[in-house]
Design brief:
3% strand; 3 domains; mainly alpha; extended
């Protein structure tokens, strides 16, 4: 075991030495090679719907890994660019992501999709996968439709009431949590926003008494 660790350390030392001695050009070539390898390893071509093209690249010769990285950083811009492209106005097309690609489907197919059974097209499973269920502890969505039934039968019919409650709690939370001053002050805005959101969620789920209990 010690011999293996020693060899690994020597190998790592040699690699680090080569990297330190490499020129900017060599490092750039190495970086491009790594990007292409990642792009190939994360390629989702095999799951692409027949005849559905990928959305056009912003940079024509950029590898797919760059496209996927751009979606991670600038998803809104990517969606707006693809949505504004007349070439895909009434066509199915694909936006590449690292975990799984997104297939964009025009509204004209909506009724057809609605008629499909849940064994073929399951929105709950899709959303669970999108939330990385195995890491966010919502993998129960794969085995139960309880959450969907609660949303459909309890939340949606009373949505107006819940929104009003959340709005009321947000107004009260801003009034009580945000300092009122005419001077510049230092403020941890993330902590304050967290308090506001926590009160809004608590008000809707647990009631007013709990939402104001710090």
């Amino acid at each position: 075991m010690a011999v293996i660790e020693t060899r690994s350390m020597k190998f790592a030392t040699v690699i680090v030495g080569h990297l330190k001695a490499a020129s900017y050009l060599e490092l750039s070539v190495l970086a491009l090679a790594v990007i292409f390898m990642i792009s190939y390893a994360t390629s989702s071509e095999s799951s692409k719907p027949v005849g559905a093209p990928f959305a056009p690249k912003k940079w024509k010769f950029a590898p797919s890994a760059i496209q996927k990285l751009r979606f991670t950083i600038q998803a809104r811009d990517v969606l707006q660019e693809a949505g504004g492209n007349l070439q895909y106005k009434d066509r199915i097309y694909i936006l590449p992501r690292f975990d799984r690609d997104i297939t964009i489907i025009p509204f004209k197919y909506l009724e057809e999709l609605r008629s499909m059974p849940r064994t073929v097209l399951n929105a709950t499973h899709a959303q669970a996968a999108n939330l990385c269920a195995q890491y966010t502890h919502v993998d129960f969505l794969f085995h139960s439709d309880l959450l969907l039934r609660v949303v459909n039968n309890k939340l949606t019919p009373n949505l107006n009431m819940y929104v009003n409650w959340a709005q009321e709690e947000m107004n009260e939370a801003f009034h009580s949590n945000m300092p009122r001053t005419d001077d510049w002050i230092e403020l941890d805005i993330q902590d304050k926003i967290h308090e506001v959101v926590s009160r809004m969620v608590s008000r809707v789920i647990l009631g007013k008494a709990v939402s104001q209990n710090k």
